[in-house]
Amino acid sequence: MDSSVLSYSLELVAGSGITLSVEQRAALQTSVVLLKKNYKFHRVLFWGKILGIKKDYFIAQGRGEDEMQDKSNLYSFNCMDWFLLPLVTDSMIEEVTTKAAKGRFIGDPSAMEDETTVNEESRLAVTVHQIDEEASVVPRGALVKNPHGLVQINRSFGGLSHSEARRLDNFLHFSKAKNPKKSNLEVGVVNQTIVFLDELMDDIPKGSWSLQFECASNVCVLRSLSWLGLTFFHVPMTPQHGYMYIGDGKKNLDIPFLL
Question: Do 144 and 240 lie in a common domain?
C-alpha cells in the first residue's frame, strides 16, 4: 500500500489483524521519504512484513516509471535502515525451490542451510516475488498501458462502483498476464490499454479468494486463502486501494482440501 497514505490504509485493513506500532509507523513515514529520494523512485509502497523466529523482515517496494517492470524490493529490521533484495532470476527461483529450507524464516539474511548454497536473503527475495506474482491485486481500470507499453497509474480512475466491487471479476492480478486471451480476443485491441491483466476469478483452485465488505460496508476487502496474510482493500467510488502481506512467508498448500 502506498506509503503516503499508510496510516489511513492500515485503518481500513485493521479487521484482518494487520497493524504496526506507533513507533514503526513513525519510522516508516520518515524513512520512505529518504528511500524515494535516494533511489529516485516515483513512489514507495509498504509491502508488508514476513515474520521470523528471531527478527521480522519489513518489506518496502519502490516503483519507477513502469509500475510493473520497474520494481525494487527492500527489507529492514527497524523500518529505518533499508537493504536492497537481490533481483530474482529463474535460476534463483529454481535453486530456492529445490534447496532452500521449508520452515520459518529465522531473521538472519546470511543464514544458510547445511549443505546448500542458498542464504535466507535469496529465499526472502524469491518469497516476496512469488507472493507478488500470485496474490498482488489491483481494481480493474486502476492501471493503464500507454502507447509505449509502459504500465502506469490511471489518473482518471475514480474507483469501482459498489456493485462492481462486489464482483471478483473486477479485481486483477498485478503481475504479467499468464492468460491473455481476454485481452486479445474478447475486449478488442483498443481496450488492451486498460484490460491487460488476469482476473482473480480465473485462479485455480476456485474459491481461493474471500471478498467481504467491512467498515460499515464502505470498504471492499479481499483476502488470499493461498497466501494467508495477504489483504487487499478498495474504497468504492474513490481511487483508494492497496494490499499488504503480514505472515510467515509460507504458501497454504492445503487449500484444495479445505474448499
Answer: yes
